[in-house]
Amino acid sequence: MYELLGNIFKAASFVIAPPYCSYCKEWLSERSVFCEECESAIIPIVSEYISVRNYTIPILSASNYQDPIKKLILAKLYSNRTAALKLGELIWKKTIVKDLDFDCIVPVPLHWSRFFKRGYNQAEVIASVISKKSKKPLLNILKRKKRTTFQFLLSKLDRSKNVSNVFELQSRNVERLKNKKILVVDDLMTTGATIKIACLELTKARPADIKAVVACRVV
Question: Is the domain of 159 the same as that of 79?
Fold first, then answer.
């Protein structure tokens, strides 16, 4: 009975909202982010490593910053929350994040003014997908203290200055992270300055380990 109802629901959903490729818009026979041809253009890239105090932090990425995944990244400018959910699915599928050992997930926060305008934080939506699939808690414990210029508009040197001292870990959250293994999540990495400053703030809680994952990064 449940199987029959499930099949009916699936058929109805295909009629109401038929699946299509998020890049080329080709209709699909099964729900997926991209068609086979577009997904084949997503080339895995090696992990980046950054050093923050006495932590060596690997940064996983599902792709280079190029189409077709670039289109999903830029969709945040048009308040397309569905695109962020798809980025979370791609990270889970294309990286080894499912095999990592972590206790909690911390998304890179958005300034309240951009959150208000956009209606959501893309990094948090991506993190929610990873949280659901991994069954690990999502903790919104970092605060962005000031609104910064978009990183992609700045030079490499100015990007570091732009995000310097921009995040705050409130004191009540310190004990929640002590000796925990943290996974930091963001949508895009350019120079790594944003993630580095976020991780620097998280080290105040003396976690056991920090790792990071992004949907794509500029190489």
Answer: yes
**Is the confidence at residue 210, as pLDDT, over 90?**
yes
Partnered with residue 204 across adjacent β-strands are none
Contacts of 147 (CB under 8 A, 6+ apart): 111, 113, 114
Q: Do 87 and 115 share a domain, yes or no?
A: yes
Note whether 106 and 193 are same-domain residues: yes
Full residue range of the structural domain in which residue 33 is found = 1-40
CB 61 within 8 Å of CB 190: no
ω before 58 within 30° of 0 (cis)?
A: no
Average model confidence (pLDDT) across the chain: 83
pLDDT tens per residue, range 174-200: 888 999 999 999 999 988 889 999 999
pTM: 0.82
Domain count, the chain: 2
